[in-house]
Amino acid sequence: MAKMLYRKDTGEILGVHIFGLHAADLIHEASNAIATGQTVQDIKFNVHAHPTLSEVLDELFKGAHLDAHAPAASNNAAAKEKQPVAA
């Protein structure tokens, strides 16, 4: 099971929780995405082999719903006040 917190307006990934067997095998992709500043838009088109455990993250990122006209991530203070969304 996996859960992602992200900003709906910018796609910034705020956090990812992974529970269950092999969670330690999966968390590295999410932590690298956060550490390098990737957004949901950046990572949702990564290729994940089938059948593998990484498909859990593939479905998680592809299931994220962003605002229709989400701008690129910025350091705009007003935009950072928006609430995160859980996927």
Automatic annotation (TrEMBL):
UniProt-listed GO biological process terms: 2-oxoglutarate metabolic process
Gene Ontology CC annotations of this record: mitochondrion; oxoglutarate dehydrogenase complex
Keyword terms: NAD
Pfam families: Pyr_redox_dim
Species of origin: Monoraphidium neglectum
InterPro entries in the cross-refs: Class-I_Pyr_Nuc-Dis_Oxidored (IPR050151), FAD/NAD-linked_Rdtase_dimer_sf (IPR016156), Pyr_nucl-diS_OxRdtase_dimer (IPR004099)
Name assigned to this protein: Pyridine nucleotide-disulphide oxidoreductase dimerisation domain-containing protein
Lineage: superkingdom: Eukaryota
Record flagged with keyword Oxidoreductase: no
Domain Pyridine nucleotide-disulphide oxidoreductase dimerisation, first and last residues per copy: 1-59
GO molecular function, a single term: dihydrolipoyl dehydrogenase (NADH) activity
Keyword NAD attributed: yes
The family this protein is said to belong to: Belongs to the class-I pyridine nucleotide-disulfide oxidoreductase family.
